[in-house]
């Protein structure tokens, strides 16, 4: 018997040999959602060391889940076939184990990074748009810059005029992102505000797409008396 693996001739055991180690499924999640470059994968998984990320990617390449093409990691047919399994796992998690967040899970930098990957830039006019994201309960501030339809995240002021300022506490914005709180309800109760030209702020509901997990998350009851402090 080898020192690695489970030593059982079973498809589930063999699958866990490839995918059962820490961080593996979250790396696969981000690859399936379109992140293809090492630095972008690392930024979306800040708790994962770069050395371990590199190790996992090499393991996936050897297992036939992805190919490295230039500086990009592209999923193979075997890797893409994990989408239905991973989203099924997410649906199970949303139903049976997705309670209130722990404080350490509400990372504003990760949230903004996720949000920028889900912008529908086709609804935006002009060559450049800048969204400033300010968290009312944290000192953090971020800028999402869309250049010719391609979004990027800055954690320092890029020096461009801001088109829309997005203000929210981190918990409420996570709830909107995950579909627990509708964007309209968040705006109506003052938990989320958009400040900018009306023509652009009215488009935010079509620009800010929700998490791919949102369809599986049950919306929370809304207290319409709640207001952001």
UniProtKB/TrEMBL annotation:
Keywords: DNA-binding, Transcription, Transcription regulation. GO terms for molecular function: DNA binding. It comes from Nocardia brasiliensis (strain ATCC 700358 / HUJEG-1). This is Transcriptional regulator. The keyword Transcription applies. Pfam families: HxlR, SCP2. PANTHER family: TRANSCRIPTIONAL REGULATOR, MARR FAMILY (PTHR33204), TRANSCRIPTIONAL REGULATORY PROTEIN (PTHR33204:SF18). Residues 10-101 form the HTH hxlR-type domain. InterPro entries: HTH_HxlR, SCP2_sterol-bd_dom, SCP2_sterol-bd_dom_sf, WH-like_DNA-bd_sf, WH_DNA-bd_sf. SUPFAM superfamilies: SCP-like, Winged helix' DNA-binding domain. The keyword Metal-binding does not apply.
């Amino acid at each position: 018997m080898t020192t690695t693996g489970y030593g059982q001739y079973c498809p589930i055991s063999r699958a866990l040999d490839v995918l059962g180690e820490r961080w593996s499924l979250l790396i696969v999640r981000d690859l399936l959602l379109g992140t293809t470059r090492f630095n972008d994968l690392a930024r979306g998984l800040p708790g994962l060391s770069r050395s371990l990320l590199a190790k996992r990617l090499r393991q996936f390449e050897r297992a036939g889940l992805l190919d490295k093409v230039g500086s990009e990691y592209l999923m193979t047919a075997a890797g893409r076939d994990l989408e239905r399994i991973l989203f099924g796992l997410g649906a199970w998690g949303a139903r049976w184990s997705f309670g209130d967040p722990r404080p350490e899970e509400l990372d504003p930098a990760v949230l903004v990074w996720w949000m920028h990957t889900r912008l529908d830039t086709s609804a935006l006019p002009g060559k450049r748009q800048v969204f400033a994201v300010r968290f009312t309960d944290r000192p953090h501030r971020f800028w999402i810059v869309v250049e010719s339809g391609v979004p990027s995240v800055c954690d320092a002021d890029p020096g461009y005029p801001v088109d829309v300022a997005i203000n929210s506490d981190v918990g409420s914005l996570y709830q909107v992102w995950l579909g627990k709180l509708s964007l309209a309800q968040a705006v109506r109760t003052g938990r989320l505000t958009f400040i900018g030209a009306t023509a652009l702020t009215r488009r935010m509901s079509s620009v800010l797409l929700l998490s791919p997990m949102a369809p599986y998350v049950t919306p929370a009851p809304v207290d319409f008396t709640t207001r952001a402090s």
